[in-house]
Write a structure and sequence with these properties.
The chain has about 150 residues and is of the alpha+beta class. It has one domain (about 15-145): Arc Repressor Mutant, subunit A (Orthogonal Bundle), CATH 1.10.10. It contains 5 helices and 5 strands. It has helices spanning about 15-25, 30-40, 50-55, 65-75, 115-130; strands at about 80-85, 90-95, 100-105, 110-115, 145. The strands form 2 sheets. It has a 3-stranded mixed beta sheet with strand order 4-3-5, with no helix packed on it. The protein has a two-stranded antiparallel ribbon with strand order 1-2. Strand 3 and strand 4 form a beta hairpin.
């Protein structure tokens, strides 16, 4: 299991940011580059507001609306995912689009990434044998709510 740290991640290179945008079919505008960098360096699963605060340090005229629209375009292009927060709704963003699950701590409101290939195999086998009427699952992500134990 991996957990987000409270510290910023190392800044990606401009070339890496451009590659990620190009790979998602998006032009590498200055705003997109900045917003993607902020999304990647902020710990955990940041909100649009957290991304905006970070981006506004370098571009004070950048609006929160632009950050929301840009993050939505990232989601549509498969560059990031929306993650439902512990209090409900899809208010946070995850730049890690690999298959993984999320644990929600109701005490701290923390969202913790959780990877378990054995669990993934069990879920795939379950749906292969049980199936769903008129539905073929392509991917899945569990959202598990609980409390971190000290």
């Amino acid at each position: 299991m991996s957990t987000p740290s409270d510290t910023l991640h190392p800044a990606p290179t401009p070339a890496h940011l451009r590659e990620r945008l190009a790979g998602a079919g998006l032009r590498a505008t200055q705003q997109r580059l900045l917003i993607l960098e902020c999304l990647l360096v902020l710990p955990g699963h940041p909100t649009a507001e957290q991304v905006h605060r970070r981006a506004a340090e370098q571009a004070p005229s950048l609006s929160l609306g632009t950050v929301y629209k840009t993050l939505d375009s990232f989601v549509a292009a498969g560059l990031t995912k929306r993650v439902a927060s512990a209090e409900g709704g899809s208010r946070r963003f995850d730049a890690d689009c690999t298959e993984h699950h999320h644990l929600f701590c109701t005490n701290t409101q923390e969202i913790i990434d959780y990877c378990d290939p054995q669990l993934d195999k069990l879920i795939r086998e379950f749906f292969a044998t049980k199936g769903l009427a008129n539905f073929q699952p392509h991917s899945f992500s569990l959202h598990i709510t609980g409390d971190k134990l000290q």
